[in-house]
Automatic annotation (TrEMBL):
UniProt entry tagged with the keyword Protein biosynthesis: no
GO MF, one annotated term: phosphorelay sensor kinase activity
Modified positions (4-aspartylphosphate) in chain numbering: 669
Limits of the Response regulatory domain: 620-734
Annotated protein name in UniProt: histidine kinase
SMART domains, A to Z: HATPase_c, HisKA, REC, TPR
Pfam families with a match to the protein in the record: HATPase_c, HisKA, Response_reg, TPR_8
Reactions mediated catalytically: ATP + protein L-histidine = ADP + protein N-phospho-L-histidine
Upper taxonomic lineage: Bacteria, Pseudomonadati, Bacteroidota, Flavobacteriia, Flavobacteriales
Amino acid sequence: MTSIKRFILLFIIIYGPYVLAQNVTSAKRDTLNSIFKKSVKSLESYNYKDAIKYSSRLIDLSTLYKDDYHEFLGYDLLGTVYRKIDDSISAKANAEKALQIALECKSDSLISWSYVNLGVIYSENENTKDKGIVFFEKSVALNEKLKNEEEVYLIYINLAWSYLDLNQEDEAFKILKKANSISGNPKISRLNKEFIRFLFGRYHYQKKNYRLAKKKLISVAAVADQKAFHDLGGEVYNFLTKLYFDTGDYKNAYLSLEKTNYHDEKIFDAEKLEATEIASAKFNIREYQKDLDVALKKKKLSDELFKKTNQIKTAFIITTFVLLFALIAFFLLLNSRHKYVNKLQTKNIELTEAKEKAERLSKVKSKFFSTVSHELRTPLYGVIGISSILQEDKKLSEYTKDLNSLKFSADYLLALINDVLLLNKMDAEALKLEETPFQLNVLINSIIKSFEFSLEQNNNKLSVNIDNKVPNFLIGDSIRISQILMNLIGNAIKFNENGNVWLDVQYVEVTDEGKYKTKFIIKDDGIGIPEEKQEVIFEEFNQVVNENYSYKGTGLGLPIVKKLLDLYESDIYLKSDLGKGSEFSFFLDFKKNGNLKENMSNKSIDVIECTSENLNRDIHILVVDDNKINQKITQRILEKHYFTSSTANDGEEAILMIKEHDYDLVLMDINMPKMTGIEATLEVRKFNSKIPIIALTAVEVKEMRIKIFNSGMNDIIPKPYDVSQFLSTILKNLAK
């Protein structure tokens, strides 16, 4: 526990501002910084002898230069070194000297720092833990005054830990609640948050609330395994072992003990090195003292040299035997190391083979998903396209509800296929974020429009609020943002009837990198989520079951949201009460698109009525597609808007028709027999560079975008067609 605290303190020391010694010249400060960094490096590499040497040198020069800040650092580092080698008397003396300097300088940050250092030193001794708690509480008071939540959070961990060690569970619980109240701060690390959750589990265990303790500890253990938090893993599995043993679950107690050993082995090498260096440092310190004694007694020993001859011989013999035993031990260790190296090489070969096999299986799985999803999408596009056309036919107005249900079902099945494909990509780590310009209000309006039928079906109302401080023209991955919002809003609508759903987009701050930190909140007043389900719902195929709702989903939406946010290095936060609704929130950083005028931010892009009549001329479009149903759907849409169209069944036929006729535009499918759309476009561009060619594709647009544009195509329309987007894209390219 204390090692974590001291690491954070060293980080603050190294990068902390120079609050003192303003009269010290730059050259002197650079000299002191150089010595300080050598001391820190020696400490981190367990070279305590050099750490003491450099820290002492730092104190001497700081005193000479009258630099209180670096003098403080020197004493603080000496206190840390002596604490590491278990010399508590020297550790306290140096830490108290550092505190004295901080008090004289009246620096709250350094005073708080010293209090934490003394708290760590005193809390490591069972007899002085109470005094350590006093110092921690003093540091908390100062850091709360300085509004330093990150430092306060770390001190809360130390405080709660100390109270639990003293079996003062109620006091520990008060501290843990305070820590939990600021856990939403995105600057607090995931590891420190998990330590607080672990201490909650330990609290319940010591209070003999075994059910709550087991739930919390298992959850933290899963994170420790996933994130390779070995210090945390060793602690949490140790208490799980005790819990299972106390409750008579000896099988799980044994399994937890094995996990404890696993995590302990992971940190064994570092601890072994540290222990060796500690022993060496203690030996060196004793040697320094021994040399001093020898110097003082040199004259006396010279007078008694004859009397000591036998003792010297004995010491020589003993030393010889010690060296002999040391040599034997060295050869035994070398032999043991050789065996371990051979085992390691064997394990590495097995691991490499397993890795190659896993990669092969992953490629096969990815190809399977890609092929199957494309084959499933193609007939679905027929259903969606025909139902869209029928919806617009006024003669079928009495079947509007049935057609809406048909299209909704087809859209749902398509979304399910896309979710499975997306989840497969994320598992294979093949998904990368893109940065493209987009309009926030257009993106959100498009999302709202897609939920019109669902809102009407469940009689829900969707309200949207966008903070005026959030720029409308942004740069980011609009597709992934849309997937996150659609999954969260979709869940809010599906699990709510006769209720309300709110989407709130809030400005937070402009980061140091010039990005706009934005908070998204999706809230509803639906059925809510039970507390025991609030962690597992982010796992694949897990969902809330309510007897009052017949809806059964796949349980993929929230896992997809969580994994997409992981790409942004962001977390999702959940607040929910059963029967009162739920609130999901997350933070994203965006670049502002400065190439566009912000005074257009409140204007949405209207769909232009695209017809051949509006262009004042007859437009002839060639539709190239090997699927007859897709040909028919595309032609029906074009004919309805007064375009003339012809069809070609593959790339070769398309090339011949373009040579023989003067078409105004070509709609080119990508995947076709004989010759693909990309190959056909490359041939067309050899004799006709002006005719607009628009790609029609059922595969992921991101996968093909570069190949499509490099072939000479002008634009892309993804299948199934959104009629408004379909017509707008045609009009845009005809206008060119």
